[in-house]
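User: Hey, my collaborator sent me this sequence without any context and asked if I could get a structure. I don't really work with proteins. Can you help?
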Amino acid sequence: MAGLSLWLDCNTRLSPSPRLDRFASPAVREAWAAFARAAFRGPWRARPDAVRRTLPALLQHQARLELWVKEQKLLELDLETQRYRLGRDPSCELPLADPSLSRIHAILERERPSDRDFALEDFGSSNGLFHRDRRIRWIQLRDGDAVQLGSPLKGEAPELRYVHPRSPLEQAVRLLGIGALAGSALLVSGMLLAASIGGGSRIRSIEGPVKIFAANGQQVDAKEGSSTALPSLQSYPLHLRQALMASEEARFGWNSGIDLFGTLRSAVLGSGGGSGLTQQVARMVYPEVGRDLSLTRKLRELSVALQLEVGFSKNQILKLYLDRAYLGLGTEGFEQAAQLYFRKSASDLDVGQSAFLVGLLPSPNGYSPCNLDDPGAGLERRNLVLKLMHEQGWLSDQGLIDARRRPLNIDPSACRESSFSSYPFFSDYVVGELEGTRFGLNLRGSDAAGNYAVESTINPKLQQLAQEQLKRFLDGPAASAGLTQGALISLNTKTGDIVAYVGGGDYSRSSFDRVQALRQPGSTFKLFPFLAALASGVSPAESISCAPLDYVRGCRHHTGLISVAAGLAGSENVVALRLAERAGFSQVLKMARRLGITTPLDADYNTMLGGRETYLYEMARAYAVVANGGRSVPVHGVSRIYDLGICRSVKSLDRCPARGVTTPIGERSRQLIRPEVAAAMDQLLAGVVQGGTGRAAAVIPDARGKTGTTNNGVDALFIGYSPALRLLTAIWMGNDDNRPASGASGGLVADLWGRYMQQAAKALPAAG
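Assistant: No problem. I've predicted the 3D structure and written it out in structure-token form, which is a compact way to encode the shape of the chain:
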């Protein structure tokens, strides 16, 4: 290399090498002294501007390039401009006359003006670039990097050394960070020791998710924590775990799990963030920690994180994070997100796809590929995570280039559908059933809490229809009538399977479940006075007086006498009261209790006419008894429960040991009312649809049902069924604040019932 020579253009400036220890130079000491004077002297109002004027000197840093041959430094060059070409061609910004170099050997540039450091890229040279004895195509340079212009095996290749020391302020921040880390390590070590001596972690187990599926295998739960997890940490690819740690907390494997400095910073500034992986897991598994930006929340988070670190291994904590992290569009955990975005298991993700999912974590909605305001954010975040992986040594130079070049290839349907957040009201109902008397599971806080897969009775086609029809009706006819909310439940009249369940118009705005809300049933309660009368021997053809009874007016459309059947069809209050008196009010209440009404009832006119509050759920169950020939109908939403602590994975439920599967015993069917009484009531309900207040439901040829409307249209109901379909549907509509709706009526709700049942009739054969 004795013949090596150098050309430099007029824009290139040679400068003496600054001292490496810039932090201790006189100029730096003077800059810090000026900063201190500005910060602590002079009027308060003038200090911020004075401090800002001293910052340029503390932020000063200079990148430079050194050329070495045979351990001799031939030159050093301050890098000023944005882009340099390096090669034998004299037109290059860095021309080097050496026969081993190509005409344009490499490009040295800042990819963006805001970048701190330069990147070096091979420009298709013959002898290439070598870093740490490996040939590279591209490298993001860091202070101290050395790159050889040719193979080191072919002689003494020229070597470029990149020098870019930290600015004085960067060095100070680094020293402060090291001090804070050391201090936090000592403090946390003491806290962990104290926690261990004091009895260890009070957290003995983590509440597992409850995963709810339809019979066809579609997951339908929507609550936080309902993730679909892989069976073990090793099931998640190594590069996914590395991407997570590179992005969220590179020190996770050896630190205490608590970032005290970041926690203090975020608490003081009220900015959020500043939490290590363990602290984030604390929020995921213990919702009581909260998500506000207060100091008290940070302290709760630290307390739970400390107990997690004492009671669980790093691998267990990392798996909890992978299982439960929110990744947008209703997905909980990386397995759900992988299935939604890429239609594959998380175990099959490539490094670019793993980096994309990890990149969503800080803002799943903001960085989502479905965010039309910034569609490129997801790609930028993926590339940032890949860069962080490269900096940690978990991704080679070539691997970084290849991963960045690979298209995202997101499933287009991900932005249109998410099967993971479909039926939130039903999910809440199922959790309630699991914790109720039927199963008696404790899903909150016990050693045996959670981690179940539940096969439910829901029919996805009917559920989707119910949601769509209710929303469309609320936006149209219901809105015109002054109604803003509705609820619907459909069940199989033979088995009691709940096949559709909608507790309101929009779960995201209100999660209050109106299927199980106390509302006045109105005239739908007349089922019980009529049943009691039929059971006492009254015939449907018997004539009843239409004359007023005490303060209750007479029949609206008749005078004199009216048949029992016509009285129900016209929903005549006076007929219902006279029948209640014939049977006895106490017998009416016994009938209601026998058919499953549990709410407080009084033996008075108000109760007989539907003025006492009941649950739509219980009213539907009572009507189902009539539809089932007088036999009890065990209404339920759970078909089977799998204990994932035994079954291990939702992907192998068919191979689960018998001890891990619970099939409900089921309620023993009982004859609650005589078959002939049920048959007579069935015909009375058919008459309501054929020629009474429920005519809007007659679009279903064999429809039976009853309308109900309370005073001033506060509540409007229709409960009906089709014997041929074996399907009963109960619908309530009204306003949450009990605001009257002058246009509301049971007939209006019967219209919605007919629309929904028509579509359900088409879907049921296909659904099997």
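In plain terms: The mean pLDDT is 82. You can pass these tokens on to your collaborator as they are.
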